[in-house]
Amino acid sequence: MNTEELQVAAFEIILNSGNARAIVHEAFDAMRQGDYDLAETKLDQANEEFLKAHQSQTELLQEYAGGTEIKVEIIMVHAQDHLMTTMTLREVALEMLELYKKLDKK
């Protein structure tokens, strides 16, 4: 895999995880407004963006498993960091959604 292909994959991961992050923040806003259905929809939409990012990541892993040498560049490290922190943010949002719902019942 050449440098350009690796950079394209990294930017796809960054793009899709960035989209997911923005959507998670929209879910947080919906939670604060008490619109839990919208928050759930937004978190589902964020997950769809993660699936796109994971596709790019999986393709790289398949290349590597097939014996292709992949030179790790800083942009790929950044892409992976971006993806993982955004995935964690979504997990926290899912927990917060349940807490918001629980507090509203009281």
What can you see in these coordinates?
The chain is mainly α and 106 residues long. The chain has a single domain (3-105), classed as Phosphotransferase system, lactose/cellobiose-type IIA subunit (Methane Monooxygenase Hydroxylase, Chain G, domain 1), CATH 1.20.58.80. 87% of the residues lie in helices and 0% in strands. The protein has three helices and no strands. It has helices at 3-32, 36-65, 74-105. Helix 1 runs antiparallel to helix 2, helix 1 (3-32) runs parallel beside helix 3 and helix 2 (36-65) packs antiparallel against helix 3 (74-105). The protein is elongated. The model has no long low-confidence stretch (mean pLDDT 94).
Task: Explain the layout of strands and helices.
Elements: H1 3-32, H2 36-65, H3 74-105
Helix pairs in contact: 1-2, 1-3, 2-3
Active site: 78
Organism: Streptococcus criceti HS-6
Modified residues (Phosphohistidine): 78
